[in-house]
Amino acid sequence: MLFGAVAVLAPLPAVATATRKSDSVPCWKRLLNDYYDGQLNNTYPIPCYTQAIKHLPASLEIYGSAKDDIIAARTAAINHKPPPPEGSGGNTTTVAASSSSGGGVSSFPLPVLILGGVAILLVIAGGIGMLWQRSHPRDDDAAGA
Predict the structure, then answer these.
(1) 103 vs 17, residue with greater confidence
(2) Residues 78, 142: one domain?
(3) Residue 127 structural domain
């Protein structure tokens, strides 16, 4: 009987060691590691979301919707709901801009193409106007001489 109890209790230190290893990693780091695939799959304690936002790399904060996605996941956690799907963090301007380009994330945005075309046309028009002025002097200059 004693041998059976020892056999049952023997795996417990291994389980406790595994739990301590996961506890040694801060929750904000686990949350960011979970987010790096683009979606939060788990629910975390509420303070973890705020800590994760404070530890966001600048590139994710500037060029991505990570902050908005984490805030949306925090709101869902407060309301005891599952984390929202990717990109639903309330960043409607990014979604609208990317959908107007007609492509995915890596496609070049359509508004930039349009503005670039208009800029090129204005430079061409300015060059033509300058050439026109040089080749056609004003009549006022000829009459005054």
Answers:
(1) 103
(2) no
(3) 108-145
